[in-house]
Design goal:
The complex is a heterodimer.
Chain A: H1 9-17, H2 23-36, E1 43-46, H3 48-60, E2 72-76, H4 103-110, E3 114-119, H5 153-160, E4 166-170, H6 177-183, E5 186-189, E6 210-214, H7 217-227, E7 257-261, H8 271-286, E8 290-294, H9 302-317, H10 335-346, H11 349-362, H12 368-388, E9 394-398, H13 414-418, H14 425-430, E10 434-441, E11 447-454, H15 459-473
Parallel strand pairs in A: 2-3, 7-8, 7-9
Antiparallel strand pairs in A: 1-3, 4-6, 5-6, 5-10, 9-11, 10-11
Helix pairs in contact in A: 2-3, 5-6, 7-15, 8-15, 9-11, 9-12
Chain B: E1 9-12, E2 15-28, H1 67-79, E3 87-88, E4 91-94, E5 104-107, E6 117-123, E7 126-139, E8 143-145, E9 154-156, E10 163-169, H2 176-193, E11 205-215, E12 225-230, H3 233-252, E13 260-265, E14 270-276, E15 286-287, E16 294-295, H4 298-305, H5 312-323, H6 327-334, H7 337-349, H8 356-374, H9 385-396, H10 402-412, H11 419-426, H12 434-447, H13 449-456, H14 462-473, H15 480-490
Parallel strand pairs in B: 12-13
Antiparallel strand pairs in B: 1-2, 2-10, 2-11, 3-16, 4-5, 4-15, 6-7, 7-10, 8-9, 11-12, 13-14
The chains are: A alpha/beta, B alpha+beta.
């Protein structure tokens, strides 16, 4: 069964339920392919031996009523997993083994899934190319020396490269949608408060949200259905009626009103992206939906706002990594010296940059000019969407302003790196759901994505639109297995 | 302005200085578990045995507010006659220290749960109102132990995350005595409410003291210094005395006072600089994104108001009105909820024909003396309210004299014995039969004929002699009133 790893989650679940495949067959196949794919550097930690044991155990007494029966999967190394090393892509947590499980991963195991391992990511999810990971670059399966995007770069690479049928990432400013777009897969950032943040290494608490990444929209819907639960251990978790997203999935989007925001037509955007967007407009029209030109006037302030709010929260969230209680510790002459050495050696350059920006914008004398102002702008951005949603049901934009770039291409230019998130960041600031689907290729044959932004808690609607478009687009990812020698 | 004798002024040559004091009291919320985690809060547990993953700030751990602590803070606010804010916000106060696992303390900065209120102080020369600026909830830090090892510091996180109420007064206090009364009043209110045990030895109540001085009559505030973390009333008073004089001396020398944080050295009885304003931490406060703003409805607050017991000020007024106590007596009795309870129990057990004045005298006199001597709280009193009530009734109905009562009281201390039984067993009942006493008196007059004559000739002092002799002959049991009456007739 050499084509096991090419199957979608939906197919795998069906094959397990029909007893055409066992969990062991599937787990073995993904392990074998993962072993042959070390070149991609998608994994930080694998748990293959115990994954196989769990698969065998599942097959002995298979519970086929579960949503992910015996399905193996790897997860981003930002989710704390009990007794499995959890590094957040950082040296400072390179030896950290949690004694607890994140709510989101707990939900997944409760539905029968089996952990394959922990996937590479930018350090503390800070990056757009997976180049800030202490554990090295991740290769994009699309082409050699191409970044997979970030921060969920290992996750995107692993799904596109078929090392895992599905995965979960986290998205603070685009960390699921941008790598999904760069690797030709589907990635959903749910509404803030939909998935519990309990047990996820925090980057920016008011923006962080876990979400599914998969080969297609249906798989994404099924995984979202599993991971989204109300959790009293997270005070920002919201108790709303969650849908059976995969069951209610439909390609009937007739009469839906889709907003096209003019502010996303930015200067210097490649023509390929503009053309893709136009194609997207045509696709939704072909599906019977209506497009309406809208305005989100504060869009251009989103990126600067994000780069104040996110570092501010990060500077405080990362204060706990001080060498005192767990993780990496450098020896010092005294407490202060130990702090300085631990944090200088333990954090990479990008993380240090953001801690410094965050510390600066929260400092007395600067707080009002930066942090407070950014919060006000954040409200204006939220209001933009509220206004737009009086007229439309969802919004269609490109996912990223470009296709994937080469490793090393932008590492010395943080601002150009930050610009990658220009279309995804407003969604996080407004706490809305957004999904990226592969919609075409650029001239180099690299995938390009389109983003559908929904109303809060309206995941079903954007999944439906994505599902309908997916059918029309009929995207084929060009995976050549170049890394398997 | 008060022109009373107890005014606290610092005199220098031709000038008088007034001291201006404001307190930031840190009161540990009486609760089973911590402010944002389910760990226990018991005092004196083995180090690091009451620590959850949240308290130790493990990656991905999130705070969840303990509703009980919120209720406790609101109740305390009600007890301070303060405005309860329907919306308050938890902020992060960022700084690095080994016993602060998160690298920040969750506190309330801009929007506290409780706003302005007031506390009434009963001073010897009348009442004084002290304004409350605010009350907010915050987490306590852990404890660094520096003296267990020459090289290393040990950290105990049991206290990490325990709920504290910071109660900030307005700069309305003017003397060490007022500070003492203020702290006792706060403690008393919280003990009535059951929101803080007020135990200063265990650190449940401690204060930062803000002090400045100014020429008497001046309206401007001087530059203040903050004395951190003083944990007894006595030390607060000593620190204020020292610090006020230090500041006055600087002014007299023509020097400036630096706004700074100081520490009180209890061994040397002096304050010294900890950090200057320039070195002050920049805490980079911002709203904690892990917690939503705390919203409490008026209904929620009203529900808590129903649980508020009678507080000291109201109880005092009732004692004065109902029991005809003096304000002074009432103040003493309501100062501690357990004393008030004891007193009311005695009153209840005395029944119909009660002598409340006598009860007050016995409680604040004999009983307090014993408690002081044995270093006991009233809740540990060796004499129960019921038995004290019986004893007082025995005095009131003439069964025993006040003097005999003291003997009986001494015997009651051993095992809370019933005074009625003691009186019977020891035969201490008062002689109130006029005939018996008359017989005794006849005999004494007979035996002391010469003295009786001297008395009749005008040596009135000798009356006391006859009283004494009669009492002695009765074994101390004769009713002194009857002795007086009969002697007057006979002599």
């Amino acid at each position: 069964m050499s084509d096991i790893t090419k199957q979608s989650l939906t197919q795998l679940v069906e094959n397990i339920k029909n007893k055409k495949l066992s969990s062991t067959d599937i787990t073995k196949a993904f392990i074998e392919r993962s072993e042959k794919s070390k070149e991609l550097n998608s994994y930080i930690t694998d748990d293959f031996t115990s994954a196989l044991e769990k698969a065998k155990k599942f097959d002995q007494k298979p519970n086929l009523n579960l949503k992910l029966p015996g399905v193996p999967m790897a997860v981003k190394d930002l989710f704390c997993t009990k007794n499995i090393k959890t590094t957040a892509g950082s040296k400072i947590l390179s030896n950290f083994v949690p004694t607890y499980e994140s709510t989101v991963t707990e939900n997944i195991w409760n539905e029968g899934a089996i952990l394959l391992g922990k996937l590479n990511c930018d350090e503390f999810a800070m990056g757009s190319s997976n180049e800030t990971s202490f554990f090295g670059n991740v290769q994009n399966p699309i082409d050699e020396n191409l970044v997979p995007g970030g921060s969920s770069g290992g996750s995107a690479s692993a799904v596109a490269g078929q090392l895992t049928p599905i995965t979960i990432g986290t998205d603070t400013g685009g960390s699921i949608r941008q790598p999904a777009s760069f690797t030709g897969i589907v990635g959903l950032k749910p509404t803030y408060g939909s998935c519990s943040r309990y047990g996820i290494v925090a980057f920016a608490s008011s923006l962080d949200q876990a979400g599914p990444m998969a080969q297609n929209v249906r798989d994404c819907a099924l995984l979202q259905e599993v991971i989204s639960t109300y959790d009293t251990k997270d005070s920002t978790s919201i108790d709303f009626k969650r849908k059976q997203y995969s069951k209610e999935l439909t390609n009937n989007i007739k009469g839906k009103k889709i907003g096209i925001p003019k502010e996303y037509r930015i200067d210097g955007m490649p023509k390929e992206i503009e053309d893709l967007w136009q194609k997207g407009v045509q696709y939704v029209k072909d599906c019977g939906a209506e497009t309406i030109d809208i305005s989100l006037p504060h869009t251009s302030y989103a990126l600067p706002t994000y780069y104040i709010v996110a570092p501010a929260e990060a500077s405080s969230n990362l204060a706990r990594y001080d060498g005192v209680k767990y993780g990496f510790r450098a020896q010092g002459e005294n407490l202060i010296d130990m702090y300085e050495k631990t944090r200088s050696e333990g954090f990479g350059a990008e993380v240090q940059r953001r801690i410094m920006i965050g510390t600066y914008v929260l400092s007395s004398g600067y707080y009002d000019a930066y942090y407070l102002k950014a919060q006000k702008v954040r409200n204006l951005i939220k209001n933009d969407f509220d206004e737009a949603y009086k007229k439309v049901d969802a919004i269609l934009t490109p996912s990223t302003p470009s296709s994937a770039f080469k490793i090393g291409e932008k590492t010395n230019d943080p601002v150009s790196m930050y610009l990658n998130d220009i279309f995804t960041v407003p969604v996080n600031l407004a706490g809305l759901p957004g999904i990226s689907i592969p919609a075409g290729h650029d001239s180099k044959g690299y995938p390009l994505g389109l983003q559908i932004i929904g109303k809060a808690f309206d995941e079903q609607n954007i999944l439906n639109i994505a599902y309908a478009m997916e059918e029309k687009i009929d995207f084929k990812n060009k995976i050549t297995d170049w890394w398997i020698k | 302005m008060s022109k009373n004798s107890s005014e606290y002024l610092i005199n220098r040559k031709d000038k008088q200085y007034e001291v201006v004091i404001g307190l930031e009291v840190h009161a540990q919320v009486l609760s089973e578990s911590k402010l944002f985690s389910t760990s226990a809060t018991k005092f004196g547990a083995e180090p690091n045995t009451q620590v959850s993953l949240v308290d130790a700030a493990f990656p991905g751990m999130l705070p969840v507010i303990n509703e009980f602590c919120v209720k406790q803070a609101i109740k305390t606010g009600i007890g301070l006659n303060a405005k309860i804010n329907n919306r308050s916000v938890f902020d992060r106060k960022n700084y690095f220290y080994a016993d602060l696992p998160q690298g920040y303390q969750i506190s309330q900065f801009k929007d506290p749960i409780v706003g302005e209120g007031k506390v009434i102080l009963d001073m010897p020369d009348g009442q004084k109102e002290v304004g409350i600026e605010r009350l907010h909830l915050e987490q306590d830090a852990g404890k660094s132990i520096h003296d267990l090892d020459p090289q290393n510091t040990f950290v105990d996180l049991n206290r990490s995350g325990v709920a504290l109420m910071e109660i900030v007064s307005k700069p309305d206090l003017r003397s060490p005595d007022e500070v003492s009364v203020y702290i006792k009043k706060l403690r008393s209110i919280m003990q009535y409410l059951g929101t803080c045990d007020g135990n200063m030895q265990e650190g449940s109540l401690r204060a930062d003291v803000n002090i400045s001085v100014r020429a008497k009559g001046s309206k401007e505030f001087g530059t203040r210094c903050e004395i951190k973390n003083v944990n007894s009333i006595k030390f607060m008073q000593m620190a204020i005395e020292y610090e006020a004089n230090r500041q006055v001396n600087l002014i007299e020398e023509g020097k400036l006072i630096d706004q700074e944080t100081r520490l009180f050295d209890t061994k040397k009885n002096e304050t010294r600089s900890m950090r200057s304003k320039e070195d002050a931490h920049d805490y980079r406060y911002f709203p904690d994104p892990d917690l939503l703003p705390l919203e409490v409805s008026d209904e929620f607050i009203d529900e808590l108001k129903k649980d508020i017991p009678e507080l000291p000020d109201v109880k005092k007024k009732r004692f004065i009105d109902k029991f005809k106590l003096s304000p002074y007596e009432a103040t003493i009795l309501v100062s501690d909820i357990n004393i008030a309870k004891y007193f009311e129990e005695v009153v209840a057990k005395m029944g119909k024909n009660k002598d409340i004045k006598l009860a007050v005298n016995w409680i604040t006199g004999e009983l307090f003396a014993v408690l002081n001597k044995k270093n006991l709280e009233i809740s540990q009193s060796p004499v129960s309210a019921k038995n004290l009530a019986i004893l007082i009734n025995l005095i009131k109905n003439g069964t025993i004299s006040g003097k005999i009562a003291k003997t009986v009281f001494e015997l009651m201390l051993e095992g809370d014995k019933d005074p009625q039984k003691i009186v019977e067993e020891k035969g201490l009942k008062q002689q109130s039969d006029p005939k018996t006493i008359e017989a005794l008196i006849d005999k004494i007059i007979n035996d002391n004929r010469e003295k009786a004559i001297e008395y009749k000739q005008g040596k009135e002092k000798l009356f006391g002699f006859f009283v004494g002799q009669t009492m002695k002959a009765s074994g101390g049991k004769a009713n002194p009133q009857l002795i007086n009456e009969i002697l007057k007739k006979k002599l």
